[in-house]
């Protein structure tokens, strides 16, 4: 088991007084944590559970934009209430180990999932030899923990994929998508597609989109001719497709929730950013293309925690759960500020679910972070950005201009190489302080759960 370095211990001790003092002078608009909670968070110890929340593409600009719009400039989101906050670097690497300064979600997710950097596009495999690296979820399973993954993307998308699969390329999501992963196919003795691997891993709870991948037919092996969904049922999964089905599942058997053919539809809509800007707009807090029976991310998070806790009720070990707000990133790519803000707000409600649980179960480490930064920037109203922009009317009745200019208009907006926020509470939370590396998150979780 990894032991805290002397630097971490000294830093943690020294920060007790400073953090407590900061909390003591916090205004009503600031963090709600008490001095006692802050001091407790700095302590080490072992966690029974870990809840990791990933806002995909949720850099500081994306957080600030959502805060300004829904809570006000002096307001605070749920994710702002963690007692300990730091930042981590997100770069990927080339095959020779040299830095690739702007990561994608596959390489970044592989970083915290395995503790190793890899090349963009690769899922939990080495950057040079393309060999599988054990993941934090696999280690948790081997040590007797229940495991879960919740997302608003396809369950085979990069961020959930890094936990329970190993693939040469992130595009190899279903049995029919294996063009870029010839050696990963079952026919070549590989583990199969991301969808097949995910259910073969017997992850206790898998909730998200991507039904189209699981409806593909397996081409080789034991389940040849069956769809991956049918394979999941053969493996004992309860398969559900809407909120009513999710509410009805029972603990004790694994659950596969497939709530959309592709990505789960966004919660909010509005006019996308445009050349020369848009007229001032209020976002529509709803989406006609989102079925009413679709569970929210907070719904899925709540049920996942309930199921994982129930499975481990009489076990010494608890659970590891990853929750991803995926479409913050996807709407940032599309230069759609309302879609992006709505997904950040939805993710923030899932953060509240996790923190509420941890308030009753203080042996739970909760971490929230992002996989990488993204393009949206708040700029002065008088600015005339060369790319796409939009003016919003916030909940405070004020105008705010957001700019998307990391690519030519008409092209997908790009990730950025900036460091991003990481915040935590609970056992080993002090490890997020300062500026760390994305791969350090693997060590934090492994140490908190005592994984061997």
Characterization of the model:
- This protein is an alpha/beta fold.
- The strands form three sheets. It has a ten-stranded mixed β-sheet with strand order 7-8-6-5-10-1-11-15-2-16, sandwiched between helices. It has a four-stranded antiparallel β-sheet with strand order 9-13-14-12, covered by helices on one side. A two-stranded antiparallel ribbon has the order 3-4.
- It has 14 helices and 16 strands.
- α3 packs across α13, α11 packs parallel to α13 and α12 packs antiparallel against α13.
- The protein has helices at about 5-25, 35-40, 60-70, 105-115, 135-140, 160-165, 195-200, 210-215, 230-235, 245-250, 295-310, 325-335, 335-360, 440-450, and strands spanning about 50-55, 85-90, 90-95, 100, 145-155, 205-210, 240, 255-260, 275, 320-325, 365-370, 375-380, 390-395, 400-405, 420-425, 435.
- The chain has one domain: Alkaline Phosphatase, subunit A (3-Layer(aba) Sandwich).
- Helix content is about 30%, strand content about 15%.
- β7, α10 and β8 form a beta-alpha-beta unit.
- It is globular, with a radius of gyration of 21 Å.
- Mean pLDDT is about 90; it is low at about 1-30.
């Amino acid at each position: 088991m990894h032991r805290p370095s002397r630097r971490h211990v000294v830093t943690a001790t020294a920060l007790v007084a400073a953090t407590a003092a900061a909390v003591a002078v916090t205004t009503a608009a600031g963090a709600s944590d008490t001095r006692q909670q802050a001091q407790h968070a700095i302590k080490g110890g072992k966690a029974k559970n870990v809840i990791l929340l990933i806002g995909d593409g949720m850099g500081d600009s994306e957080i600030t934009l959502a805060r300004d719009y829904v809570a006000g400039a002096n307001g605070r989101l749920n994710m702002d209430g963690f007692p300990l906050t730091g930042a981590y670097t997100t770069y990927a690497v080339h095959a020779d180990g040299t830095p690739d300064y702007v990561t994608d979600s596959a390489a970044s997710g592989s970083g915290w999932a395995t503790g190793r950097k890899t090349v963009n596009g690769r899922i939990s495999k080495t950057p040079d030899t393309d060999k599988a690296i054990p993941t934090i979820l696999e280690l948790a399973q081997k040590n007797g923990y229940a495991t879960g993954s919740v997302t608003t993307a396809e369950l085979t998308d990069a961020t959930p994929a890094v936990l329970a699969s190993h693939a040469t390329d992130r595009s190899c999501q279903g049995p029919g998508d294996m063009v870029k992963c010839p050696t990963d196919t079952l026919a070549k003795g590989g583990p199969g597609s991301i969808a097949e691997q995910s259910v073969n891993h017997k992850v206790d709870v898998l909730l998200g989109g991507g039904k189209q991948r699981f409806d593909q037919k397996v081409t080789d092996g034991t389940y040849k001719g069956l769809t991956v969904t049918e394979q999941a049922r053969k493996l004992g999964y309860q398969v559900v497709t809407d909120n009513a089905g999710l509410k009805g599942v029972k603990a004790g058997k694994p659950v596969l929730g497939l709530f959309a053919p592709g990505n789960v539809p966004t919660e909010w809509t509005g006019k996308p950013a445009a050349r020369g800007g848009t007229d001032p707009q209020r976002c529509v807090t709803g989406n006609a293309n989102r079925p009413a029976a679709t569970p929210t991310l907070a719904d899925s998070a709540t049920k996942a925690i309930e199921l994982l806790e129930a499975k481990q009720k009489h076990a010494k070990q608890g659970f590891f759960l990853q929750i991803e707000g995926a479409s913050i990133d996807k709407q940032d790519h599309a230069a759609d500020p309302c879609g992006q803000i709505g997904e950040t707000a939805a993710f923030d409600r899932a953060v509240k679910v996790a923190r509420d649980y941890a308030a009753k179960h203080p042996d739970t480490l909760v971490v929230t972070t992002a996989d990488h930064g993204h393009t949206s920037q708040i700029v002065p109203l008088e600015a005339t950005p060369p790319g796409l922009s939009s003016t919003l009317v916030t909940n405070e009745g004020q105008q705010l201009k957001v700019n998307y200019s990391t690519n030519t208009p008409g092209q997908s907006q790009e990730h950025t190489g900036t460091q991003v926020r990481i915040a935590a509470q609970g056992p080993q939370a002090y490890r997020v302080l300062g500026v760390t590396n994305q791969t350090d998150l693997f060590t934090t979780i492994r140490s908190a759960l005592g994984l061997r």
